[in-house]
């Protein structure tokens, strides 16, 4: 054990399978006591199960410390109780990794409103609820001691949220919202010393296995650390462990793509061209040329933008 996270208590939501399972194993390896939360639900959010127990068992067999939790991250009361339980049973909660997720993919004309609501509920409301519960605790602690706290929140976005993906209007909207949540929460928690970042992970999980042609999922404990497989969903987990560690106290409000052996620092929505009308209102009749030439720079070639 490296001790990078010795003495820390971490909650990883949806850590029964896939990417979250990799995070839970990684955080435990570095000395954190991990709350392995998982509702044990299907890929599209139906049913419940006790898969979290399996992960706790693996961590304990490897000499680490973990407890399981089967709460639904979209349920306010359960999430508040889960955070209370961390404090009453483990004495603290230093790290929250919001990873739980489901998909209900369909082109928008075939998508039901329940497919939209449930995906938003797990990803957005789920990440917001855990964040609110722990932020209240950290703020209380900071007020009592008059000092900064040790606090790390790591959210999970995705390429679909950052660039869009056909058939995932619900999921992309949720994953983009998580970036907004990350940036705003980072501002709100800065004064008490907590950091909030997001990762964009990947790997062959049961979620990505739904994409056409994808092979069977890989569970992180099926691979030894010496056996490199670019599709191993736990390859981004060292980045999560580092963001959760004292070494990353200066990093907040950032989005990091942690995919395979690659780490990319992403920046979105920076202006790529700009025009100003010198203190006057624009005239829509005159905007065609200005937009084509000065803003998009495409008029000459007649290129379509996007899609
Ligand atoms: N797999 C990829 O390539 C990929 C790419 C980008 C982002 N992501 C994101 O990574 C995260 C993990 O995805 P994965 O691929 O490992 O999927 P997965 O299906 O293997 O794991 C998701 C886990 O979340 C749990 N879960 C679902 N709803 C829950 C709820 N309400 N409360 C608690 N737990 C719940 C599930 O039971 C499951 O164990 C998700 O947020 C996903 O959007 C995945």
From TrEMBL:
| Region entry Disordered, spans | 212-232
Q: Which GO terms describe its molecular function?
A: oxidoreductase activity
Write down the Pfam families for this protein, in alphabetical order: adh_short
Could you tell me the keywords of this UniProt record?
A: Oxidoreductase
Q: Which Gene3D superfamilies match?
A: NAD(P)-binding Rossmann-like Domain
Which part of the chain is the Ketoreductase domain? 8-202
- Under Enzyme Commission nomenclature, its number is 1.1.1.-
Superkingdom assignment: Bacteria
Tell me its family.
Belongs to the short-chain dehydrogenases/reductases (SDR) family.
PANTHER family for the chain: DEHYDROGENASES, SHORT CHAIN (PTHR45024), SCP2 DOMAIN-CONTAINING PROTEIN (PTHR45024:SF2)
Q: What is this protein called?
A: Short-chain type dehydrogenase/reductase
Q: Which source organism?
A: Gordonia insulae
Q: Lineage in the entry?
A: Bacteria, Bacillati, Actinomycetota, Actinomycetes, Mycobacteriales
């Amino acid at each position: 054990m490296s001790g990078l996270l010795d003495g820390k208590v971490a909650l990883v939501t949806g850590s029964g399978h896939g990417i979250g399972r990799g995070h839970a194993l990684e955080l435990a390896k570095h000395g954190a006591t991990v709350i392995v939360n998982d509702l044990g639900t299907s890929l599209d959010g139906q049913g419940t199960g006790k898969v979290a127990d399996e992960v706790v068992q693996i961590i304990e067999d490897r000499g680490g410390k973990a407890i399981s939790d089967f709460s639904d991250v979209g349920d306010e009361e359960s999430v508040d109780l889960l955070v209370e339980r961390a404090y009453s049973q483990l004495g603290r909660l230093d790290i929250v990794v919001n990873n739980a997720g489901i998909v209900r993919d369909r082109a928008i004309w075939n998508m039901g409103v329940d497919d939209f609501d449930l995906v938003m509920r797990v990803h957005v409301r789920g990440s917001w609820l855990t964040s609110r519960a722990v932020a209240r605790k950290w703020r209380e602690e900071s007020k009592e001691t008059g000092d900064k706290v040790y606090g790390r929140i790591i959210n999970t976005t995705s390429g679909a949220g950052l660039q869009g993906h056909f058939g995932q209007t619900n999921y992309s909207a949720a994953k983009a919202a998580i970036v907004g949540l990350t940036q705003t929460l980072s501002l709100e928690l800065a004064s008490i010393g907590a950091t909030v970042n997001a990762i964009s992970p990947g790997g062959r999980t049961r979620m990505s296995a739904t994409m056409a042609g994808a092979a069977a999922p890989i569970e992180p404990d099926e691979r030894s650390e010496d056996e490199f497989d670019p599709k191993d969903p736990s390859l981004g987990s060292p980045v999560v462990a580092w963001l959760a560690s004292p070494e990353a106290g200066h990093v907040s409000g950032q989005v990091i793509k942690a995919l395979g052996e690659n780490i990319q620092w992403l920046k979105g929505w920076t202006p790529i061209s700009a025009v100003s009308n010198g203190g006057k209102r624009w005239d829509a009749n005159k905007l065609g040329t200005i937009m084509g030439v000065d803003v998009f720079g495409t008029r000459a070639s007649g290129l379509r933008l996007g899609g």
